[in-house]
Amino acid sequence: MDSSTFASRKSWSDRIFDIIIYFVVTFVVVVTVYPFLNVLAISLNDSIDSVRGGITIIPRKFTWDNYVKIFSFSGLITGFKISALRTILGTLLGLLTASMLAFTIARVDFQGRKFVSTFLALTMYVSGGLIPTYMLMRDLHLMNTFAVYILPGAVSAFNVFVIRSFIDGIPYALQESAKLDGANDFTIYWRVILPLAKPALATIALFLAVGQWNAWFDTYLYNGSNEALTTLQFELMKVLQSTTTGNGGDYRSKIVSAATNQVSPESIKMAITIVVTVPILIVYPFLQNYFVKGMTLGAVKS
């Protein structure tokens, strides 16, 4: 039975239901995409013209002046470099530690798997709190260092359990077969488990990358006074704060100077928002297929 025959046999109730589904999906897409396109249009529109309002998704007077202005701020360039570096290193280290630990506790011959799993699960429910964490970072001499962006989040219990769930679905006979061929534990992990666990790894990589890229509070706590270790999100926060509350120190003076040069604070805010958002939007399509598979792992058991 071809699709045209099946479609012709649809009842009126099924067709009405399909129409409702299409309408709801279209509405959700519009509500989701419109704010981003509006921000993009304002960032690419002439600042003086933007003050008039009425811009939807298409700039009235196209210009790159807003982006030229924000990239003249030295803090944004430094923040972009640090954010990119912490995203790459943090994602790689997080994947390595989570996958190694997941491989270990997924082994049926590991005697302490139950204890380690229980200990990891407890860390998801019990937190040390903000002040003890701050004191710990201080005592470990991680203040005003780049390592404070990477090491505290190197191991995540949630990431470990997601990867372990996927590894549990891989037949253990593959590991036994590799052992018969002379492979050691690391070889099994690197050449057997990791290639088969790509969907789970891609899912966790996306979580880690988004988390690292969007992080700004750790910069505020541990490196707020160190301009050489500032991040892009922290710089965006300072710009937003300076335009909404009138605070922000050096950024306030830069934005006032930009306004005198016919670049409005609102346009600067929108341009920086696009610069912060676009890198993650570029990465996601390449991981989409793996991400969908990773999110559904464990949903169906044979």
Task: Jot down its keywords.
single chain; 302 residues; mainly alpha; MetI-like fold; 2 domains; 15 helices; 71% helix; disordered C terminus; transport; Sugar ABC transporter permease
Q: Topology, pairings included?
A:
Blueprint: H1 3-8, H2 12-43, H3 47-50, H4 65-70, H5 74-105, H6 113-125, H7 130-139, H8 157-168, H9 172-180, H10 185-196, H11 198-214, H12 217-222, H13 232-244, H14 250-260, H15 265-295
Helix pairs in contact: 2-15, 5-8, 5-11, 5-13, 9-10, 11-15, 13-15
Membrane topology: Multi-pass membrane protein
Transmembrane segments: 16-37, 84-103, 115-134, 146-167, 188-210, 268-287
Family: Belongs to the binding-protein-dependent transport system permease family.
Q: What would your notes on this structure say?
A:
The protein is mainly alpha-helical. It has two domains: 12-52; 65-300, MetI-like (MetI-like fold, Orthogonal Bundle). It has helices at residues 3-8, 12-43, 47-50, 65-70, 74-105, 113-125, 130-139, 157-168, 172-180, 185-196, 198-214, 217-222, 232-244, 250-260, 265-295. Helix 5 crosses helix 8 and helix 5 packs across helix 13. The protein starts with a helix and ends in a 7-residue tail after the last helix. Residues 298-302 have low confidence and may be disordered.
